[in-house]
Amino acid sequence: MSKKYAIGVDYGTESGRAVLVDLSDGTEVADHVTPYPHNVIDEKLPNSGVKLEYDWALQHPQDYLDVLTRSVPAVVQASGVDPADIIGLGIDFTACTMLPVDAQGQPLCFNPELANQPHSWVKLWKHHAAQDEANLINEIAERRGEDFLPRYGGKISSEWMIAKVWQILNEAPDIYEQTDRFLEATDWVVSQMTGASDIVRNSCTAGYKAIWHKKKGFPSNEFFKALDPRLENVTQTKLRGEVVALGTKAGELTESMAKLMGLQPGIAIAVGNVDAHAAVPGVGVVTPGKLVMAMGTSICHMLLGTEEREVEGMCGVVEDGIIPGYLGYEAGQSAVGDIFAWYVEQGVPAYVQAAAEQEGTNVHEWLERHASAYKPGETGLLALDWWNGNRSVLVDTELNGLILGYSLLTKPEEVYRSLLEATAFGTRKIVDAFHNNGVEVQELYACGGLPQKNRLLMQIYADVTNREIKVADSKQTPALGAAMFGAVAAGAANGGYDSIVDAAQKMARVRKDTFKPIPENVVVYEKLYQEYSKLHDYFGRGENDVMKRLRAIREEARH
Ligand SMILES: Nc1ncnc2c1ncn2[C@@H]1O[C@H](COP(=O)(O)OP(=O)(O)O)[C@@H](O)[C@H]1O
Ligand SMILES: O=C(CO)[C@H](O)[C@H](O)COP(=O)(O)O
After folding, report:
1. Residue 315 lies in a domain
2. CB-CB contact of 171 with 163 (8 Å)
3. How many angstroms does the Cα of residue 401 sit away from the middle of ligand 2?
4. Whose CA is nearest to atom 6 of ligand 2?
5. Is this complex scored with an ipTM above 0.90?
6. How far is the CA of 15 from the centre of ligand 1 (A)?
7. pLDDT tens sequence across 128-152
8. Residue 144's domain is classified under what CATH number?
9. Record's SUPFAM superfamilies (predicted)?
């Protein structure tokens, strides 16, 4: 039998990439990236120019289809593989990235009459403008003693489905009315490939992002009624649809999409998945004790467990949410690479840019090299990593960043180093929250763009967490994981696999080189972490709500 292949498509925040994978050993034969033509829409709507409010982050659904029709044919062509040997395709996506669709499954923003209404567009995971709704969801759920709250670390996030749906209802009731269903973008893209009129939802986003439970389903209608009487039946109406497990075949590729994607019609399409969750088998983790960090613009922390535990501020624990047979735990930091990008774009003096250019390197690399010359603690700086709020463990998007310890001698590379360290302290908070609450963390696994881009960052993470870090050998780990799920959807009988564990065992690899904690650094970072924790609690747990007061003053000033 000839070699068989699957394709994984990873939808990130700014681009989508396709990877064509050899199913015998996981070799990534070809990959291709399509930057989203409209990128993140956070200032004004395309065409109409309608201005967006603060904290909004939208996307254009056509950009997702462009990834399928540009990157998929590109990998098939570059690999020289016969499309007849490509047996399955899986996708993974940022989440909760959601959109309203009509009865035909078309995004409302495709309708020219609705395109000038911001609420008709895709809300990206980092759309944070539903915080008022999230606060009320939490208040009401707590008052009613809803048993789902502990599964989400005590708080439902404004990034998630219910808060976003409610924001649409509150601010654009006409759009809410015209919505047939609210979908995760990952499920919508799958439906576009399978042409299925009955759209299936994947258990991962349903569980982590829409408060769905394998045994209990969604929260009760009474709960939704208590939020807002207009939401009473939302789970039977606009959130309806069969919820199926990861690895399930959602359907088969349609003739028309196959033509556009350069594939054969009828191949298996797996149900959608989330980027971070797909990365777990992608890095070869199928057992507890190993925390996987998907490190890019943000970090998602993924961990398997055998018992349901309550962990402060975790994003969620979902049965079978990552690997069937285990409880999947998720936590996260909503900005990491994004913070470094902010500094490079907004904070670096012209002489650094000029020096980097002259040396033929990019500004990140220049800053990393110069920051590496410092010992832990030597900058005298300490930062709070809340440039995009705090996802875990405080679950509060209204917190902001802070750098302490500036002097007239402070250098840009010192600030950069303090930002790298701040994100490592944020990860340490998460590791401690799991480990101290009975969900063991023995080793760290890293994947995503950052481990390949910044060695200093990775060493700091090993030192701050005092744990060895193994790095994925794959450059596109979520896409590799998605391809594995595509192979599972196809099944062993067709040259794929019958379970994700089988697929991961054959196809995943980590690099030989690992990052090991350096004992003398660990000691200094322990001291700095204690200081970080004090600042974290002071500004983040209500002792001094100055960050929120500043926001309120800003809002007043803007209106
Ligand atoms: N050398 C570097 N060091 C640290 N961060 C970097 C470096 N180069 C790029 N970045 C950051 O990496 C992030 C992109 O990560 P990547 O994993 O490629 O994307 P995504 O999260 O969208 O999948 C950006 O936020 C960017 O600022
Ligand atoms: O919350 C998520 C997963 O649960 C998002 O998908 C994630 O934070 C976006 O990640 P990135 O842009 O770094 O790929």
Report:
1. yes
2. no
3. 19
4. 94
5. yes
6. 12
7. 999 999 999 999 999 999 999 999 9
8. 3.30.420.40
9. Actin-like ATPase domain (SSF53067)
